[in-house]
Each structure stands twice: as C-alpha cells, then as structure tokens.
Design brief:
Largest sheet: 5 strands, mixed
Radius of gyration: 19 Å
Protein name: Alpha-tocopherol transfer protein-like
Strand content: 5-15%
Number of helices: 16
Mean pLDDT: 84
GO molecular function: phosphatidylinositol bisphosphate binding
CATH superfamily of the largest domain: CRAL-TRIO lipid binding domain
Distance between the termini: 51 Å
Helix content: 40-55%
Number of domains: 2
CATH architecture of the largest domain: 3-Layer(aba) Sandwich
Structural class: alpha/beta
Pfam family, one: CRAL_TRIO
InterPro entries: CRAL-TRIO_dom, CRAL-TRIO_dom_sf, CRAL/TRIO_N_dom, CRAL/TRIO_N_dom_sf
Amino acid sequence: MSLLDKLPPLLATKAATELNESPAHYPSCFAALRNWLQLQPHFRSRTSDEFLLAFLRTAKFSVERAKQRIESFYRYRSELPELFANWNIFEQKFGDIIISGALIYLPEPAALDGPRVIIIRPKCFDLTRHSSLDVYRTLFIAVDLLLYEDVQVQIAGFLIILDLGNVTRDVMLDFKPRLARNIIDGLNKHIFPARFKGMHLVNMPTMIERLYNLVKGAISSKMRDRFVIHGQSLEKLDAYMPRRILPEEYGGTYNIIENQVNLLNKLRSKAHVLDEEQNYGMVEAYVKAQKPVSSSDLGVSGTFKTLVID
C-alpha cells in the first residue's frame, strides 16, 4: 500500500486524532519541506512524498519539527559511520544473522491500530562468527528498510521485545554501554521516521539487570518510562498484545524458521533503496569540520570483561 493511499479506517482515525493528519494538507507541507531542503548546503535528503510524509507523521504534522527530524536523521548517521556506512545486505553474515532469528519483525501488529512488534534475541548472537557490531549493523539495516515504508509504524509506532533469556557469557561480556546509550539516544532523536512506543525486557537475568542499571541513568525520564521489565514471566505481555501474534516458543503461532527466510528475501528485494541512499546524507566537508564520534564513544572498544559473573 502506498503511503498516500487511503488508510484503513482505524489507522485513519488515529492519524487524524493523534497526528493532526489530513490529506488536504499534504501538498502545502510537501512544498514547504522541499523548498527548505533545497536551501540546505550541509546535507542532501530524499524528497519523495513517501519520505516526507513519514517524517511529518512522526512530527505530528508540524513542518518545523519535521525539518529538525530530517536533519537529525542524517546527522546521527554521519556521526556513527561504524553503524551506518557501507551497508551490504548480500554479505553472508547479514543473511546468517537474519536467519538466526536475532531480529524478528512480526507481520501482525499488536492491534489493528496498534504498534508493530519487533523481537530482538541476543541469545542468537554468535560472536564466534560475527562481531557484536556486525549484529547491530544488521539490525539497523533491517529495521531501516522495514520501518521506512511501514504505515502502521509511522502512525501507531513500534515496540521492541528484548528477550534476554539464555544469553551466553560471551554476549554479556561483550556488552558495550556507550553503544547502548548511543542507540537509545538515537531513539530519542528519531533516527527512524517512526514512533517508538516502548521496550519490553523479558527473561532478564540478574547480571543483565545490573548492566541495564548502568545505562538507564543516561536515559531521559520520558524514555525510561517506556521500558517495561517483565522478569521471567510473559503473562504481562498479554496486556500489550495478543499472544497468538508471537512466535511459537512464546505461546503464539509465528513460525520463526519459515518467516525468517521470507524476511531475508524481502529485505534483499529492497537492495536498490540502500544503493540510492549513497546519494544522501551530510556533505563530506561539513562532516570533516565536526568532531567525529570515535570507536570508544561508540562502545566498540570498551567491554565489561573485568566483571565477575555470578
């Protein structure tokens, strides 16, 4: 479905009441954004109706806020090239990580007018074959391609289930708090044209809860309120979504193996989007004039390998 097609009734109501959306406003809003983008010397942006509409929705149809979010979108990426530069979805490691089930993008939302559900499972990270940075890059590529065109996400948002069960010792030791803070900061700054509705942490071991406590101090109170700790039980998830939409191992009907193959094929069919993305972003001369974000700021070099694991 094109982003400009008539929305399903429940989404149309939510868009009108929560986002101030009216198709009658599209032409003037698009024109204002395009005129402004043409005057920006320090970055180049997509200008398609679909791209601009995605940011207008996350800005609740404030043109000024949409301008800020488009610029933040490109600025954030230029500051973290380790995560966002030179994406290649045909690399073997990209396919391996997707097929592993590290990222599950559920096809059915939490409700007809509810958020999309994404499950991240660190227990599927195989650091003997891929670095943690490879995993994070893969997650960003996949989410970027999917969220950008998902009307459900733009209007109703998305929530993340972070399943911390059976996480290996190597994955825990490789945890990088600065990288985690950068990612959370990115959600705050709307690095995706989507509404972040919350993160649900399930099967959370004591050790990881300690690591979470190290990070949460850097999280704004508004963002912190969006984190829900579920402990070892999944029962509280029922208040947020029907259990049937979840994978079979969570009591639902989603077949992980079959659907991850479909997901990989879908992502690779969008390779042209990544190719086009090379034409957009911050102007190189501007980036060089800014203070770069180092690998240590990303958290690439720092680890918790001196911590004692109970």
